[in-house]
Structure formats: C-alpha cells, structure tokens
Amino acid sequence: AAAGPSDLNYSVSSYTYEQEDDGASTPRNHIAAETGDELETIDPRYRVEHSGRFEPGAIFKVLWSEPKGSTDGLKHPSVSGKQEIQNKYGAKFHVGFRRFIVIANDLGHCTCVPILTYGGRGCKKSGVKPNKHGIVYEAGQRPRQVEGEPRLGFQAVQVHLTEDGEKLSRESRVNYSKLVTIEHNVSVFFIGYVTQNSWQIVEEAVNQCWDQKVHHRHPKHER
User: Fold this and answer.
1) Radius of gyration for the chain, computed over Cα atoms and rounded to the nearest angstrom
2) Distance, CA of 46 to CA of 58 (rounded, Å)
3) What is the pLDDT along the chain (223 residues), one digit of tens a residue?
C-alpha cells in the first residue's frame, strides 16, 4: 500500500484548519513561535519542548491570540479558555488555546490534526463535513454524539489525559482531513496521548482522508 501522512518518514504540507470553537477558517496553517513574549507569561506550563516529545499519538495544547477588536472573535469565540491580555504597546488581545494530536514527527516540526468542538455543536455545525471526523473521548468516559448530529466517518478514539484539571467536552471531534504543521519552537503544553487500542483508528482515518484528496494534475495544466 502507498505511504500515507501517518507514516513517520512522510513529509506533508499543512492545510487550513478549523479553529477550536467556531470552526471558521484561519489564515495560519503553519504554526511557528509567536513574536513577543506576552503569551509565555500567561501559563508557565507552556514551554518549548525537546523534539523527541512530539511522538505520534501525543496530545498538546498551543496558546493562540487574536486582536480584541476582531469582529469574528466577538461573534464566535475562536479559542477555548479565552482571556484578555495587553502587550507592552497597549494593544489588547484575546488569548486561549487549541488542542492537537501528533500524527508524525520530523526534523524541527510535526504534523498534527486538531481537536475541535465547533462551538459546542460538534458536527452539527453548518459547513462541517461529518465524514471527515470522529469522536474523541477520555478514558473512563463514554463516547457520545450531540443530539441530531449526523453519523461521523470514523470510530471514536479514546485518549488518556495525564495532567490534573484537563478534560475534553463531549462535543470534542477530530478532523482527520485537516493536517497542520507545528514547529518545535512553539511553546506547548502536553496533556495526554491517544491510547494504544485507538491509535490504529487515528492512523487509518488520516490515511483514508489523505487518499481521498486530489493528487493528480488536470491534463489542461500540462504543456
């Protein structure tokens, strides 16, 4: 079988992905270190980790900021755990986090898929493609769909959260078709990992979504 993006030595570009809560597109699909040090002082648990920690199956959070005056942010909170900070120039920002599952690790960066809630609506949110998603739930809990949510494309996967106070809401979903490149120089907070019994589901889901993408040029582009 052909290699897929879950293979450790497979290099793949990132794609635009949905934001943590509202599912709106973000222009950044490649996450590198933030400019400025305001985010680093919010929570000391977020720090630059050794590249070896970004093992496939690991789950971590990334702090994310957006201007306070963002119209989108006023209508739909785009990050979880949002709070307001002010930088040294007086500009105010909303800061929160997003969660990711590592799919493959590489030199200086890793390829991940996001865990999303879509504003607590799961895959009921308009525009979301249920067949590209699966439920993600904590060990000791039961996977549950939101009332009226369409059938999802993949089996639910179980994760083990290792940090006190961390939890996943029942609306948490993994979008296996949205690959995101995250640099190792980003401050992150590792919170858990996909359980061994569920990892194969994740690998197969990512590879299936990859196979369904268009990989061939149209003849009209040939010269």
Assistant:
1) 17
2) 15
3) 455 666 533 333 333 333 344 443 333 456 666 544 555 566 789 999 999 999 999 999 998 766 555 544 434 444 455 556 555 556 666 677 899 999 999 999 999 999 999 999 999 999 999 999 999 999 999 999 999 999 999 999 999 999 999 999 999 999 999 999 999 999 999 999 999 999 999 999 999 999 999 998 878 766 6
- Return the DSSP state at 201: H
Side chain identity, residue 145: Q
Token pair, residue 185, equals 């120089």
Please name the fold of domain 30-213: SH3 type barrels. (2.30.30)
| All structural domains of the chain with their residue ranges | 30-213
State the pTM of this model: 0.78
How far apart are alpha carbons 22 and 40 in whole angstroms?
Answer: 25
Quickly count: other Cβ atoms within 10 Å of residue 169's Cβ.
12
Query: Alpha carbon 33 to chain centroid distance?
Result: 16
| CA distances (Å), origin 183, targets 68, 112, 194 | 25, 11, 21
63, 43 contact by CB (below 8 A): yes
